[in-house]
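User: Sequence recovery, please. Input:
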């Protein structure tokens, strides 16, 4: 073969290779463009639907954002409800993996317009009384009025069936912690329904079948979640603490969770340590004195705690003890391991 022919062959090969590479890139972009992002369920995402978007285009955008996992199911659901032409354009705050009917309801109702009002931030782990004080400081709504209404669950059960079984007519555990904009003229009832709506939105995509298989209700799951919320601030520990709760319930052991005693005592701000007399407090929340779960939630848990309570880790742990100044815990299978870990930490503190 002549040098000229050789050079020509190389040039042709390079052109073909470049075309294959370019084509491969385009094919990857084409096929990956409509795929859902790897997003954990329960995450808030922003989705913009342009004016004139077809149901197929909307389905593609929702899948890419992780709100739905299957475009065909969404399109079939929209068609079965005969709302193809009722999905409104705009910018939406949606939740990944959310319930299909709730999603379609939102798209039919249209995006929520930004309202002027007071910024209300409710941290995770607050009780009703603490939430009421936060609401009063942010909005001027009377804390006592809010508290009274939050202890009237029967007024809200028709609209929020998940409140069925609420102990002592209390909304404890269901006033979802988040940052809100509360209209200036809002009432205590308006704030409570806003918080209950958010609880419903946040938990819509959670699978509670594991808890159901263990004879636990949604109310039980929220109760366990509230214990987790008050026992750790680390996400990686939440499913482990949930496993301890499930394991102790299964073995007929009392939970003996300090946070329930503090709740029974009224969560005194100056209480740094529990004494033996504290463990004797007569209360349906004192898990040192009663069998099973406390009567109800002891605070408002975040979604990560609720998810952990619905999906505990598979362990044999029956104990945990704090073993660092950062608040991490050591998890143990036996009482001897528990006391050894506790003693080791105490010796470190004394050095």
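Assistant: Recovered sequence (351 residues):
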């Amino acid at each position: 073969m002549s040098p000229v022919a050789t050079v020509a062959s190389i040039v042709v090969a390079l052109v073909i290779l470049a075309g294959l590479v370019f084509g491969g890139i385009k094919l990857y972009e084409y096929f990956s463009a409509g795929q859902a992002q790897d997003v954990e369920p329960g995450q808030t995402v922003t989705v913009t639907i342009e004016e004139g978007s077809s149901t197929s285009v909307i389905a593609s955008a929702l899948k890419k954002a992780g709100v739905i996992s299957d475009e065909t199911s969404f399109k079939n659901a929209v068609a079965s409800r005969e709302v193809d032409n009722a999905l409104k354009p705009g910018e939406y705050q949606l939740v990944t993996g959310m319930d299909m009917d709730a999603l379609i309801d939102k798209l039919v109702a249209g995006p929520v317009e930004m309202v002027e009002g007071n910024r209300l931030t409710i941290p995770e782990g607050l009780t009703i009384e603490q939430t009421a004080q936060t609401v009063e400081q942010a909005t001027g709504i009377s804390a006592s009025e809010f508290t009274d209404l939050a202890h009237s669950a029967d007024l809200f059960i028709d609209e929020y069936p998940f409140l069925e079984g609420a102990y002592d007519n209390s909304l404890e555990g269901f006033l979802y912690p988040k940052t809100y904009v509360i209209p200036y003229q809002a009432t205590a009832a308006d704030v409570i329904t806003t918080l209950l709506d958010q609880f419903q939105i946040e938990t819509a995509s959670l699978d509670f079948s594991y808890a159901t298989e263990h004879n636990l209700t949604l109310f039980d799951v929220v109760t366990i979640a509230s214990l987790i919320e008050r026992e750790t601030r680390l996400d990686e520990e939440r499913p482990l603490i949930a496993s301890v709760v499930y394991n102790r319930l299964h073995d007929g052991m009392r939970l003996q969770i300090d946070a329930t005693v503090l709740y029974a005592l009224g969560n005194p701000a100056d209480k740094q340590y529990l004494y033996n007399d504290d463990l004797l407090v007569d209360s349906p929340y004192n898990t040192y004195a009663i069998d099973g779960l406390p009567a109800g939630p002891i605070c408002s848990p975040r979604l990560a705690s609720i998810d952990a309570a619905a999906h505990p880790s598979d362990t044999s742990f029956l104990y945990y003890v704090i073993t660092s100044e950062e608040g991490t815990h050591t998890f143990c299978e036996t009482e001897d391991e528990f006391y050894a870990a506790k003693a080791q930490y105490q010796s470190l503190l004394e050095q």
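The mean pLDDT is 88.
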